[in-house]
Structures are given as C-alpha cells and as structure tokens.
C-alpha cells in the first residue's frame, strides 16, 4: 500500500503546476448519488426513501456541464471495489480492493475514459480514498 501511495504522490506532484492550486475551482461528486448514466447496473441504494444510482458513466456524461460551470477540477468520492451490497458498502469508503473500480460504479476502462475526457477539457481529477480502514474480512492483494 505504501508503494501505491508513493507512486501516486510522485505522479501527482509531477503532473500538476503548483501555481494552479491557487486557482482550483473544485466540483465534488458523490459518485453513488450523482447521476445514473448506465441504468443496467441498477444497484440503487440509499437510506430511507432516497435511492442513489450514480456511476462513472453519469459523470462522463456530465463533464462538459461541470466545465461550463467554470470548474477546473473534479473531486470524486471513493470508487474502489467494496464487494458488497450493504448501504455502506456502496459508498466506496469500505473498500475491499483498491486496484479496481467497484462494479456498481463502472469499470477500470470507464475510469480511464473519464480521466482522459476530463483532461481533454482541462479538468484535474482528484480521487478520494480512505486507506486507514477497509471492509471487514480479507482485503484483495496487489495484482
């Protein structure tokens, strides 16, 4: 896990102009509740009457809208595989596998597509992750 963090920090610091931090306008997306771009996933979870069906396709479909709002960065809540169906599992904060996108949200290929499209629009992409805790039980090892 430390190796992944080091790689991310090196890539992150090399890829961003540090002066740009002064001008960041960040749009935060709660992935699970933002927009349902692929209704075939159909996991729809939530508390009480609220049903959340958000996914990466919904974000991809909304990138131009986010750009048109004057934003230049997109911050997404965790998208890591939580390998479960409970309400908390679908938030991405109780990850089981930090190397793959949760199938409820999309695929690794869709994440790459999202990042490439965002970058083509001049948007930075920030992935949220909580590495201090994870889903109970076994966590998937490094590929």
From TrEMBL:
Keywords, sorted A to Z: Signal
Keyword Signal assigned: yes
Pfam assignment, any one: Alpha-amylase
InterPro entries listed in its UniProt record: GH, GH13_cat_dom
GO biological process, one term: oligosaccharide catabolic process
Superkingdom of source: Eukaryota
GO MF term set: alpha-amylase activity
Glycosyl hydrolase family 13 catalytic domain ranges (all copies): 28-134
Residues of the signal peptide: 1-20
CDD domains reported in the protein's UniProt record: AmyAc_family (cd00551)
Protein's name according to its UniProt entry: Alpha-amylase, putative
Organism field: Entamoeba histolytica HM-1:IMSS-B
């Amino acid at each position: 896990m430390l190796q992944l963090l080091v790689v991310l920090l090196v890539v992150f610091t090399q890829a961003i102009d540090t002066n740009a931090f002064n001008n960041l306008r960040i749009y935060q997306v709660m992935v699970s509740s933002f927009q349902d771009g692929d209704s075939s996933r159909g996991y729809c979870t939530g508390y009480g009457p609220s049903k959340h069906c958000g996914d990466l396709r919904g974000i991809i479909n909304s990138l131009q809208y986010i750009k048109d709002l004057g934003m230049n960065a997109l911050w997404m809540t965790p998208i890591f595989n939580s390998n479960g169906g409970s309400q908390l599992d679908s938030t991405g904060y109780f990850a089981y596998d930090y190397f793959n996108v949760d199938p409820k949200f999309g695929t690794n290929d869709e994440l790459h597509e999202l990042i490439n499209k965002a970058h083509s629009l001049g948007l930075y992409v920030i992935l949220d992750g909580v590495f201090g805790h994870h889903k109970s039980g076994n966590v998937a090892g490094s590929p």
